[in-house]
Specification:
The complex is a heterodimer of chains A (about 475) and B (about 400).
Chain A (H helix, E strand, L loop, with lengths): L2 E8 L3 E4 H4 L6 E4 L6 H12 L10 E6 L9 H8 L7 E6 L4 H15 L4 E8 L8 H5 L3 E8 L5 E10 L5 E2 L8 E2 L2 H24 L8 E4 L4 H11 L22 H12 L5 E7 L2 E9 L11 H7 L2 E3 L2 H7 L19 H6 L1 H4 L3 E5 L5 E2 L15 E5 L5 E9 L9 E8 L4 E6 L12 E12 L2 E10 L3
Parallel strand pairs in A: 2-14, 4-5, 4-6, 11-12
Antiparallel strand pairs in A: 1-7, 1-8, 2-3, 6-7, 8-13, 9-10, 12-13, 15-16, 15-17, 18-19, 18-21, 19-20, 21-22
Helix pairs in contact in A: 2-3, 6-7
Chain B lengths: L8 E7 L10 H16 L8 E5 L8 H7 L6 E4 L5 H14 L5 E9 L27 H14 L4 H19 L13 H6 L2 E4 L1 E2 L8 E9 L1 H7 L4 E10 L16 H14 L4 H4 L2 E3 L5 H10 L8 H7 L15 H5 L3 H17 L12 E10 L2 E10 L4
Parallel strand pairs in B: 2-3, 2-4, 9-10
Antiparallel strand pairs in B: 1-7, 1-8, 4-7, 5-6, 8-11, 10-11
Helix pairs in contact in B: 1-2, 3-13, 5-10
Chain lengths: ~475, ~400
């Protein structure tokens, strides 16, 4: 038996009010902060998915996105490091299609079913750009999801899957462009979305021998929420009672991550015995049927869609969005710090410290320390340490400053000295904060972010943020 | 371990005007500061047997100084110890004389900061972490963290705290008006300080010192040779240097209300100079007021005020020019300006002039013992240098 053993989601703290794009528009869309990208969002979703899961038990990471930060350089390895997984695992990036996530999901299910892996983490993240002023700009949102596929402790068994591919120019983005393009919706909706999704959904229903009224919830990704409602009608599902809310006015269409984020939302609301039909579109369609088991009741508390949706700060300023996405230039300080160049050997050598976020604990006096030391700061023992992961520790602000000069894009830059629960201290930036709420003693957790980019190398590291929920 | 006390004499000093010296190059600052010192001592470059050259951005090797002054194939060491560079050049020069290796040496500190965008520019050394994930921002941020915690620790509101700090800025600006070599020479009011824009909360523009170009130099020799050169030479009484190991960012016991580097370094110098009660025995101090909060912490770290009580002394005017223990009589870093490695020797210049009674309108009455203090580097990896100087032996 193969199925879902855990799930997680990530929605950025920031939401762009659509009113900021144009007066009269309704709702909001999830907006990645200036220091987030598809890798950092995937890391957050995977960490959410790993709650209650032994990290040693993960045999693979499949990462899906159309907005992976590098065209050449695997993202799944960075995600595996930042989430502190083993190294003898399969890591693969799935790309170039909104179906990359569900494609990865099928591969993961196949790997588990074939016995080559016991548990595979599938994560998808996207932050696609519509051209300023375009319709797609209004509809797109940023986010990530993670689904763990395995054979033990299944919370939703995979009953069947069915895929079709369809060559069509409906939505695309050429290598050199940051913006997606689409043909007119009259064509893409009818000839693309409706026909292809019909084919896949009918295919999986036939394969599993189920009828539309056997399905508790259908989860359809759609370029436009009207298309998925129309599809429901055509297939004999009731859009009101059976269709998963597409959350268009809360987070927007999150690309590769969209179908999986909606699946997480459906799983959160599900009860044992429910059947969930997931169908995802993009140059074809992938359809799956899952059956929820009793184990769903035992799942550890997590962020999921619910908590992440509730935790937010509204940005009402279109210009901020343009700066954050680099569409408007000019947010570099005249004093770009840190000085100097990025060093690939240094990043390589310090990977455990920077990505896995390992500090040490002294075997002699028990003092936790970050970054790792050769000589203990307390008892001066030499090389008597064991590694400690700090990424899942919470802490408290001991002191802080707020710099108005150094960072134009994140002004004021909040710099905190954090004391971790269980020992250890570090100085780091604070992100996703409400400036007037920052104070000594406030609770923080750690989040994986882009620190800066130089030599076309992105330097990822951990920042503190106020505990989100 | 022997004390340096009374083993080395300063017989000549020079100091350029500090400021945004757009028309002066690094060589000008070296020549002008060294030649003022030569003339003051009544010696020439040919009398110098070794030199120590402090510089962060205007460096590379000691040959930079040799080239400017045309020193003739003598040993010159470039000293880089961030804001302590000047004092550390002097310290090394002192040991060169005290060891008996040299009879007459030169200590110079020069920075041409304003040739670089933002002052520090690309010549600043990288932080400890080569992968550059550590917070690496201008120093104001780290001193702001001390301010945040100091106020919290002593139950002082940010508004009250900023008023206390404003008095330090006003005092140093007042002293700077009496100093023609100072970068900033104008009075300011507490209201101006409090209304100035926030640079790094809670610190504002007027809590920060000026970044400047400048150079300062000292000629050192043995007390025996000094006696033959002039009557009013001054003697080195104590020298301290202490480097932090980054404990504050590793160890949660570190409180962010004091710099242990200051405490340990001052104690070294006090022990050498035989000072038991610094507040009573020191007649003036020129200290590292890079940010007003640091001058406040220095009062406590150097034993001028009891812990947590600096506020009372500030409000009582203890450290003003006419107070019990005048601090930063020349305007301090706040107004004299801060060309990193030049600042330490600039401070010694002020103490030298004060002890000689040549400080003009800002002259302190009959000082016998003066102290200089620098602190530089990265937060809790600070380095601190303290010098104590006096007129006459004993």
């Amino acid at each position: 038996m193969t199925g879902i053993t855990s799930f997680g989601a990530y929605i950025p703290f920031l939401r762009l009010s659509r009113r900021a794009i144009a007066d009269g528009l309704k709702g909001e869309k999830a907006l990645a902060n200036f220091d987030e990208d598809s890798i950092t969002m995937a890391v957050a979703a995977v960490i959410d998915c790993l709650r209650g899961v032994e990290r040693e038990s993960i045999d693979g990471v499949f990462f899906a996105s159309t907005t992976s930060p590098y065209n050449e350089k695997q993202a799944a390895t960075t995600i595996a490091m930042a989430t502190d997984l083993r190294r003898d695992i399969i890591t693969t990036d799935y790309a170039n299609s909104l179906r990359a996530g569900t494609g990865a999901l099928r591969s993961a299910a196949d790997a588990v079913a074939s016995g080559t892996a016991k548990q595979v983490m599938v994560t998808a993240a996207d932050m696609r750009l519509g051209e300023p002023g375009s319709l797609s700009e209004q509809g797109l949102g940023d986010g990530a999801a993670a689904i763990l596929m395995g054979k033990d402790n299944i919370i939703a068994t995979l009953e069947g899957a069915y895929s079709v591919c369809q060559e069509i120019m409906d939505t695309w983005r050429i290598n050199r462009s940051p913006y997606i393009r689409s043909w007119e919706a009259r064509f893409t909706g009818t000839e693309g979305y409706q026909k292809t999704m019909m084919e896949a959904v009918t295919g999986v229903l036939n394969k599993t021998g189920l009828n539309p009224n056997d399905i508790t919830k259908v989860v359809f990704s759609a370029p436009d929420p009207r298309e998925s409602a129309r599809l429901c009608g055509k297939l004999g599902f009731d859009p009101k009672s059976q269709l998963q809310d597409p959350l268009s006015n809360l987070i927007g269409n999150t690309g590769t991550a969209y179908a999986m984020m909606l699946l997480v939302a459906a799983l959160e609301e599900s009860k044992p015995g429910d059947s969930i039909l997931l169908a995802n579109y993009g140059n074809g369609a992938d359809a799956f049927v899952f059956k929820v088991t009793e184990k769903i009741r035992d799942i550890a508390p997590r962020g999921g869609m619910k908590n992440y949706m509730a935790s937010k700060q509204i940005i009402d300023d279109y210009r901020t969005y343009l700066y954050y996405r680099g569409i408007l230039p000019g947010m570099e300080s005249i004093y770009p710090m840190p000085y100097g160049t990025t060093s690939a050997p240094a990043l390589f050598r310090e990977m455990e410290k920077n990505l896995r976020f390992h500090g040490v604990k002294c075997n002699n006096c028990g003092t936790a320390q970050y970054p790792p030391q050769r000589i203990c700061v307390k008892c001066r023992s030499k090389d008597k340490f064991q590694p400690v992961r700090f990424s899942d520790k919470k802490g408290k602000v001991f002191t802080f400053s707020m710099d108005n000069v150094s960072s134009m894009i994140d002004s004021p830059a909040v710099i905190t000295v954090v004391d971790f629960d269980g020992g250890g201290r570090m100085e780091c930036y604070m992100t996703d904060r409400v400036v007037k709420e920052v104070k000594i003693g406030m609770g923080v957790e750690m989040t994986f972010r882009r620190l800066f980019e130089r030599e076309e190398i992105i330097n990822y590291f951990w920042k503190a943020m106020p505990v989100r929920f | 371990m022997e004390s340096i006390k009374d083993k080395v004499a300063i017989v000549g000093m020079g100091c350029t005007k500090f400021g945004e010296l757009w028309d002066k190059g690094p060589e000008d600052l070296m020549v002008d500061s060294c030649y003022e010192a030569f003339e003051d001592a009544g010696v020439g470059p040919e009398d110098i047997q070794a030199a120590w050259f402090g510089s962060l951005v205007t460096g590379c090797t000691g040959s930079r100084l040799a080239n400017a002054i045309k020193l003739d194939y003598i040993p010159i060491t470039r000293v880089e110890n961030f804001c302590c560079g000047g004092t550390d050049a002097l310290r090394n020069a002192c040991y060169g004389v005290a060891s008996g290796s040299y009879d007459m040496v030169l200590a110079v500190g020069v920075e041409k900061l304003k040739d670089h965008l933002g002052g520090f520019g690309q010549f600043t050394t990288s932080p400890f972490d080569t992968s550059k994930v550590e917070v690496d921002l201008p120093p104001v941020n780290f001193f702001a963290q001390f301010a945040t915690r100091y106020f919290y620790h002593y139950g002082i509101s940010i508004e009250e705290g900023k008023k206390i700090l404003a008095k330090i800025a006003v005092k140093n600006h007042h002293n700077g008006t009496m100093n023609s070599k100072a970068h900033l020479q104008r009075e300011i009011t507490e209201e101006q300080v409090l209304k100035s824009p926030i640079i790094s909360w809670p610190l504002s523009l007027f809590d920060c010192c000026g970044l400047s170009d400048g150079g300062a130099a000292a000629i050192l020799t043995t007390p025996e040779i000094a006696r033959g050169l002039k009557k009013d030479y001054i003697l080195v009484k104590g020298l301290g240097l202490a480097n932090g190991a980054g404990q504050g960012l590793l160890d949660s016991d570190y409180g962010f209300t004091s710099m242990p580097e200051n405490v340990k370094c001052a104690q070294m110098a006090y022990d050498q100079a035989g000072i038991k009660n610094p507040r009573e025995e020191i007649d003036l101090a020129v200290v590292h007021d890079c940010f007003t909060i640091h001058e406040l912490i220095i009062y406590e770290d150097l034993g001028f005020s009891p812990r947590g009580k600096a506020r009372d002394d500030i409000e009582a005017g203890t450290f003003t020019l006419k107070g019990e223990l005048p601090v930063n009589t020349d305007g301090g870093l706040k107004c004299f300006g801060h060309p990193l490695s030049a600042s330490g020797l600039r401070m010694v210049y002020e103490v030298y002039k004060q002890l000689q009674g040549k400080a003009g309108p800002r002259q302190v009455k009959d000082p016998r013992i003066g102290l200089t203090h620098n602190l530089g580097g990265l937060p809790t990896y600070f380095n601190c240098a303290v010098g104590i100087f006096g007129m006459g032996a004993g």
